[in-house]
Amino acid sequence: MFEKTAMVIVANTLPSLEQIGGIALGIALGLDPIYTLLISLLVNCLLFFPVFFGLKLFYKRFLSKIRIFNKYIQRVRRIGKPYIDKYGIVGLTMFISLPTPLTGTYTASILSWFLDLDWKRSFIAIAIGSTIGGIIILLSSVGFLNILKLFFNI
Fold first, then answer.
1. Residue 77 zone, left/alpha/beta (φ > 0; ψ -120 to 50; rest)
2. 83: exposed, middle or buried (Cβ count in 10 Å: 0-12, 13-18, 19+)
3. If you average pLDDT over residues 43-52, what whole number do you get?
4. What percentage of residues in the chain have a pLDDT greater than 90?
5. Cα dist from 25 to 7, 30, 39, 88, 150, whole Å
6. Terminal Cα-to-Cα distance of the chain (whole angstroms)
7. Contact 92/108 with Cβ under 8 angstroms?
């Protein structure tokens, strides 16, 4: 069971797979679906911290000293401000809850940093969005496997 759990954790940490791959893999490996969902949610929530604060540190130490990059960041934040004011954290939650490629924790964490959002509110939005997305993925995966069993007697 440890090996299967480790495989689910690794799948969840890969930017190309994240929850979609992690949950589907856990179910395909025969792990309990709820256990798989909880592991996936834990990993996805914890991913926020190294991505968000790593970017913050990298920007402070290196990128902020590059004038053109600094101007670019400020411009993007200025352009993004009306959208943040309008949609805010709810928009970020909805963005990450869509279980599609490039709408996971990595992208939402980068977006939170890029738009200079409060890390606590961003983390809560990402946790809620990951939960919604994870449940959608879980139900889809379990439903798909049950359809396969029905038609192919797997």
1. alpha
2. exposed
3. 96
4. 60
5. 8, 9, 12, 33, 20
6. 22
7. yes
pLDDT in tens, 80-125: 888 888 888 899 899 899 888 888 899 999 999 988 899 999 999 9
Q: Specify the residue for token string 């709820």.
A: 34
101 phi and psi angles, rounded to 5 deg: -60, 145
Q: For residue 67, which of 79, 57, 75, 77 has the smallest C-alpha distance?
A: 75
134-154 residue pLDDT tens:
999 999 988 887 787 778 876
Q: Cβ distance 130 to 96 under 8 Å?
A: yes
Looking at this protein, which amino acid is placed at residue 88?
Answer: G
**Reduced to 3 states, what is the DSSP secondary structure of residue 33?**
helix
